[in-house]
Amino acid sequence: MTTHAERTLLSNIRSAATTMCCVFVIASAGFAQGDAAFILPADVQSVITSRCVDCHGTDTAEADVRLDILGTLNLDARLELLNKVQDQLFFRTMPPADETQPTTEERTRVAKWVRDELRRHNASNLDKKLRYPDFGNYVDHEMLFSGEIKDKPFTPARRWLVSPQIFHERVSDVFGLTDRARQQTFYGVTNPFVLPDHSGVRDYDIATLDGGHLLVMLNNAQWISQKQVFGAVHSGKDRRKLEFSNAQDRWYPPTASPAFVAIVAKGFAPTEQELIDAIQAQFDCVLKRKASDAELTRYLTLLRSTIELGGNTEGLRQMLVSVLLESEFLYRQEFGDGEPDKYGRSKLASTEAAQAIAYALGDRGPDEKLQRAAAEGRLNKKEDFEREVRRLLADNAWFNGPVDPTLSGKNMQSHVATHPKLVRFFREFFGYTGALKVFKDEKRSDGYYQNPSRGTAGTPGFLVKEADRVVDRYLQSDKDVFRNLLTTDEFFVYHDKDNETGRKIIAEWTEAYEKLKDTDWKANPEKVIEENLEFIKSNPSVRILGGNQKREFLRYMYFWGETIGKGRTPFTTVSFAHGYTYNHSPFYNLPPTPHIFRYGAVEQKNFKGLDDVEFWDYPVDQPFRIANRKGLLSHPAWLIAHSGNFQTDPIRRGRWIREKLLAGRVPDVPITVDAQVPDDPHRTFRERVEMVTGKSECWKCHQHMNPLGLPFESFDDFGHFRIEESLEHPDNVIKTNQGNVADIYKTKPVAVTGHLDGTGDASLDGQVSDAFDLIDRLSRSTRVRQSIIRHAFRFFMGRNEMLSDSKTLIDADKAYVTNGGSFKAVVVSLLTSDSFMYRKVVREVN
Amino acid sequence: MNNRREFLTQSIAGAAALGLSSRCLFGEVTKDKPPTRFIFIHKGNGILPQSVVPPTFTREQREVEQRKDPFVADLDEHDLLEWMNPIAEHKKDLTILQGLSGKMCTTGHHTWCSSLGVFKANERLSSIKWATVDFELAKLFPSPFGHIEFACFPSGGGNSRGNINGIEKGFSARGPQQPNYAFGSPKVAMQELFKSVSAEQTAQTQYELERRMLEFVATGELNLAGHLQGSERVKVANYADALQEIRARNGRVEAMGDVLRKHLPQLDAKYFAENLSTVDRQKGLTEVLLSTLISGMTNVVTFTVDELGTLYSGLPGIEGENVNQHDVGHGKSVGRFEAIEVREKILHQHMMLVDTIVTRLKSVPERDGTMFDNTMLFYFPDNGETHHSNGSEWPFLVLAGSNSSLDISRRYIRLPAYGKEGHKTLGNWYTTILNAYGNPINHYGSPDVGLKIDQTGPIQSFIG
């Protein structure tokens, strides 16, 4: 369906100024069509002749490129060549750095002509590329924040594929489920969407539906429609007396649409009005709007035909399926409505605005107040947007839920936040969830690391959750959010209970241990239990009264003995609890905690006692300070996410800083490069990386990454802080261990110096002594702050920024600074900006 | 140096190449030559490596076997174990393949797509890294319907959770993050696959209803796409094209009406009941599977004969028992039978199905031989060597016709043990099959990060 808004705008398009990096070509009556005669302007030709033809002319033709024959090429060949030229100019890879460079004016002149020539033929590949996340930083940072750009911000009218989370909520909405009736999972529904894995904002408006989505949706639509019909057929009946074809799938919606009930209850053909009511009801359930007249006509034809052929119930179900399969169900629609302003922009229609606000802040559709504001015409002005955004940010209930339900498994539940989507921005930005995708050789971690597996997210799952908690902590305090996330030395580890509950447990355990430690508990545990039964019963934190009391009692006593008995506080969940998997403290360089099997044999006759291990003195009050950590870039989740299977990845860590914090760019690895770090038993990984990337042809790119990533050699690929690197090479084995104990190798000190450039601040750029020095400088950088704002823009807008978004970004940055580093102020600023509120129909390059 | 570090890079490149190479080769089957058919049959609860060793091995052979040293034995010189009796007639077509590992897969109780995809699959779509090997083969040998999957789904927990009589997420994957769907009962398989030629009025009506619905949705999306431009058009057009492709697939099957009618599964009414024993479910699905192959509807089928959570009923000798395979895995006896005996009964039942398939295909003439000449059947566990497996071994039985591109028949083959030079993984095995049939991929599957030897490429000695 082309919406009214789209049609209106299409017919009212006026010419509009394009900005250099705008990725769209604005439709204009003045555009030339077809293959017009080729003319190379003299002022462009002069630059090409003087700057390019020496290497790309008759005699040389380096890389098989000749620019002296542009006019003789046929159209396809010419456009292909111009696309190459455009890339080289845009990415500033030509002329080579060691050649004389054109002046800025010359470069701009040639680039503009090439761009115009390509766009004249709708053939600019660069325009397409610039829509992708990897190219976000190609919009000039200084220009964006210069204040010189006066273009009016807008977002192109668009469809935006729903995220996995929004899809799930939409299914609940189809069934009209509210409050606790909303389901965590639906038996017959498979979520067809998966976001990309890479660091950075992942939910862009460029994704498209495909055949894979359709196959999943065909099954989903069948199941959903069957449940809708089942609910209608059995409306008002006692659900306990119903029979189900699948005993494991007994759920059905608690309420049924009266329009569906009317049709399935009838023994003869429904009236036209009943058919219309049913169609409108399904449109309302699924698409949250009324069917247009044209749609009604089409659907009426279908429904009459299917009812005539299959009867009321089955005929109705086919119509229900058809609406569920409308692509509109799977896209967010943002086209704008009403007369465009003089810049060709229309404000979001009020229903679109309500959805845009709701989906920006969470995954659920608009709440009742937002719907009412839209229906009553109170969602038009900037003040209206601000009122609703502030209200929803202050509402701690509507969006409250798990940050990432897919982390939850049999042994761990995701962190719950009031605004999970805000946490999700930072987890995507930092990319620490990537830890879940890096498989490790568990033996190398002495068996402490558990890879994700069926039903568990393993060690990275715990680490990601703990990073989520750090993020949420600073979102809640909402002060200096960016700096705190980059520099905090306070973390959460384990901490499965709040501080007060933890303190209570430790107090009760300590009391119990002190009372019982001097009894004859080892030799005669039954007697000790019997003599202290009342005391034990009165202590709710000691659970030994079910099942095998003796075994449980002994386990507690041994557990307390080697923790409380040695002056240390134990973790507040006993390690012998069913399904216990807390083993990851060593990845923070903290001592280990007892393994689930440690106390397995304490009641057996041949039990010889426990070997002496120094367990972690658990800090009940969290967050707590951890030495040698500074912010999320030193969090094991981030470090693992940006590591390889066997070693660190200083190049990727450096690239992350360059692109995410410094708004910089690193060209993709040329396809001719087969980058391999050489083996050398005598060198550290840094030394081996430097051997291969130090060559001049490699250094062109690696200079932007290595100096930023190498300071993080302070941490190994599991996230351990280190000063010595284990040289894991067969020639260096000192001791081979059996089982899940790591082999021991020779070591060598790690070098952790680096160099920071690109902040635009001379007081920050320069040599850095280590990762902590680097992090500290980054946290004080204006450029870093603005870069995070740029990524927040992408997250909430679902696209890359254009130069025309300059005002939006400057305003958001100002809001952050003037509100003491409030991220919520950034959100309010972005969601009340013209970039968020206005849409413009644009003609894209095909 | 070829080691696991190098392998990581290579396997990633290989995975990327897979899609390309498959597309390039698509449709290269010549019209003069019958296509090769592939049948993947997998089971839950593991296959114990010692349970496939011929009982007539000499003492020396048994010692080598126990040491897991590599060797090859001629099956002509040996008897098969009793549970393999149903396929004894096909010994000349049989290979017993031992020593593959699959530690790069999810192992243990439930493994979902792991054994077919050679990656860790954990029930989340995001864990599906690429198309499973059966789908890759289906691309090499296109057919009107494409790949078809059947499954005796678990009802006692496990993969995949759903209606055991329905069409649910199966154990194969069409591509990255794209699960396939499997038919859970003979009834639903018949209804869906042969609906275009059904003689029943209700089925005909349902087919026509769905046809109209798909046409309606496709028309709507095509119209919408026609009004759009650029990326907005693509966002809708891809979806509309996919709808059209499904309609086209239905059309291709519909056009085979006469052939399909000729090869309709001949099944008693009991196989179409909602409640049928596991054994009857397997028999019924086997008949449907055979019809889809013999009619030419498909060239590649995958059949989950059971998963660990599939409760067994109807097993010969213990028909009245509901066998819980998890209990069997933990050594619990059933009635008067020890767990190992119950395992053998289940294996024997599977061999009955295999015999049915092979015998039937041998009865269908094709060119100068039979359809089986152009068929490969793989029987293997979905999780490796035992109930609580770790993927150190992954026994396979292979039955292949005379036109097979692999040179392995009539042999017991034990490959070098895990970690030893020359050791091979599931990835090597599938690479071998893909290479032999026209997909030149460097390596299929995830690497085993714990394996310190070169683990890329095919098992060269298997390629005839």
Key features?
heterodimer, A: 846 residues, mainly alpha, 3-stranded mixed sheet, two-stranded antiparallel ribbon, 31 helices, 15 strands, globular, disordered N terminus, B: 464 residues, alpha/beta, Alkaline Phosphatase, subunit A
Describe the structure.
- The complex is a heterodimer of chains A (846) and B (464).
- Chain A is mainly alpha-helical.
- Chain A is 42% helix and 5% strand.
- In chain A, 45% of the residues are buried.
- Chain B has one domain (4-194, 264-314, 348-462): Alkaline Phosphatase, subunit A (3-Layer(aba) Sandwich).
- Chain B contains twelve helices and twelve strands.
- In chain B, α5 (186-193) packs parallel to α9 (278-294), α6 packs antiparallel against α7 and α9 packs parallel to α11.
- Chain B starts with a helix and ends in a 28-residue tail after the last helix.
- Chain B is globular and about 75 Å long.
- Classes of the chains: A mainly alpha (846), B alpha/beta (464).
- Chains A and B meet through β2, α8 and α11 of A and α1, β5, β6, α6 and α7 of B.
Summarize it:
With 846 residues, chain A is mainly α. Chain A has 31 helices and 15 strands.
The average pLDDT score of chain A comes to 89
Please state the overall shape of chain B, judged from the principal axes of the Cα atoms: globular
Give the strand content of chain B.
Answer: 5-15%
Strand content of chain A: under 5%
> Level of helix content of chain B?
25-40%
Binned, the helix content of chain A reads 40-55%
Please give the count of helices of chain B. Answer: 12
Which second-level CATH architecture of chain B applies? Answer: 3-Layer(aba) Sandwich
End-to-end C-alpha gap of chain B: 28 Å
Strand order of the largest sheet of chain A: 1-15-4
First-to-last CA distance of chain A? 20 Å
In the CATH scheme, the class of chain B would be Alpha Beta
Q: What's the helix-strand series of chain B?
A: HEHEEHHEEEHHHHHEHHEEEEEH
What kind of sheet is the major sheet of chain B?
8 strands, mixed
Give the uncertain stretches of chain B in residue-range form: 1-30
> Radius of gyration of chain A in whole Å, from Cα?
32 Å
Number of domains of chain B: 1
- Main interface by residue count: A-B, 64 and 64 residues
Q: How many strand units of chain B? A: 12
